[in-house]
Amino acid sequence: MQSIIAKNGCETPEPVKAQVKGSIPSWLQGTLLRNGPGLFSVGDSQYNHWFDGLSLIHSFTFGNGEVTYRSKFLKSDTYKKNVKADRIVVSEFGTMIYPDPCKNIFSRAFTHLSNVIPDFTDNNLINIIRYGQDYYASSEVNYINQINPDTLETVSKMNYRNHIALNLATAHPHYDDEGNTYNMGTAIMGFGRPKYVIFKVPADASDKEHKKPALRKVQQVCSIPFRSTLFPSYFHSFGMTENYIVFVEQAFKLDIIKLATAYFRGVNWGGCLKFDKDDINLFHVINRKTGKVISTRFYSDAMVVFHHINAYEDDGHVVFDLIGYKDGKLYDMFYLHNIKQETDNFIETHKSFSQPICQRFVLPLNVHKESPRGSNLVTLKDTSAQAVMQENGSVYCQPDTLFEGLELPGINYDFNAKKYRYFYGSRLEWSPHPNKIAKFDIVTRTHIEWKKDNCFPSEPVFVASPGAVEEDDGESATSEPTKGTSSVLLCF
């Protein structure tokens, strides 16, 4: 894997037909879009972190048992500026850029002045989001770039702030059965009291005839004030049930003062995140139809969460499954000087990194002031998760551990926000390089794995069979770099 890490990718702008070994079901039709870092150096300059590489968007189009592939770099303003200068000139998460010393003093002074308030990169390399019928490359900042999902051409740059007061937003939204998109973000500077904002974009928001963006119809569901004004929670995703949004306000925080002065301190933006092991995580449960927040104070011990697996309601409880870490060191793992180490060396020098643990939390909704103190309020029989009433009326939640060593989770999305049985993901065992994929059965608490020597599969994507009755009736697809050969797309 080390020979592949941080190797510059290249575009395949015209569709290329794949060589198919075995068979692909004839019913598997459509296009799978993937996004991720694909360019790690420009000219003689290099990025420091895996999450800094310039976005390369891929498409795999299925039809009649065949697959065609194409890829294009996201033509963001960041990409254009870097290519024009033939060097990295825009700062990223783990790489802070300073003016070229060859510039004149006025150019350097202007560059320094413009960094008093950080204006984030639009290198949207994390995911593809659908708002209405518009598709956007996204990351976690206020900028997104619309793309054409058929040609992968970059259409236009969009700023959330032109439509809703946000400085940051997640790249992992939810879609309901009607096609509406739910997402959330953070309003930090210039928008009144700092708050987390949950918003909805209706399914019918697009107006392609008049080239009007779907975001023009964005609706704010609710806002939640920070519990610490200068240290808002970091969040990468959130949970959604049929009636509720679940937001985990973490002990993993963004230091606003450090962020505002990062450029002058010589600190990158990634260095502005801090984990407070002595703090707690708060669970906010919001009715997504009324926007009202449930008043009960649910909390757990401090942990770090990047990915939610799924959430649902069951007999008066909100059940949500997520992947938790004991600390905030995961981002450090992905600095390129770390991830390029041979696996044995990496394991030896990074034993302090915590494994990803799939955990189930259960929040009883019918909590009353007279509920007995010290009692477990969870009445579900299929979980050991606890929610214990405290003397002050708050509820301390302890999770049920489902599985250890799995990240980048996926489910049959037909079961999103519903009670479900299976999830899939990349198997990680004390190494940042996934060499297996796994399918976990929540009911039996067992799992099965797939692996092959020198194969490193990405996160699996599940597609249900037409008319499927069973939850796991379908295909899982994952792409993988394979040492010594061409990359492949696997269908299970």
From TrEMBL:
Query: How many and how are cofactors bound here?
Result: Binds 1 Fe(2+) ion per subunit.
Which metal ions or organic cofactors does this protein require, according to UniProt? Fe(2+)
Spell out the Pfam families in the cross-references.
RPE65
| BP term (GO), one | retinal metabolic process
Q: Which GO terms describe its molecular function?
A: beta-carotene 15,15'-dioxygenase activity; carotenoid dioxygenase activity; metal ion binding
Q: Where is the composition biased (Polar residues)?
A: 476-487
Region ranges (Disordered): 468-487
Q: Which domain of life is it from?
A: Eukaryota
Keywords attached to this Swiss-Prot or TrEMBL record, sorted alphabetically, are: Iron, Metal-binding
User: Which residues are listed for Fe cation binding in this entry?
Assistant: 172, 236, 307
**Record family assignment:** Belongs to the carotenoid oxygenase family.
Q: What is this protein called?
A: Beta-carotene oxygenase 1, like
* Annotated organism of origin: Amphiprion ocellaris (Clown anemonefish)
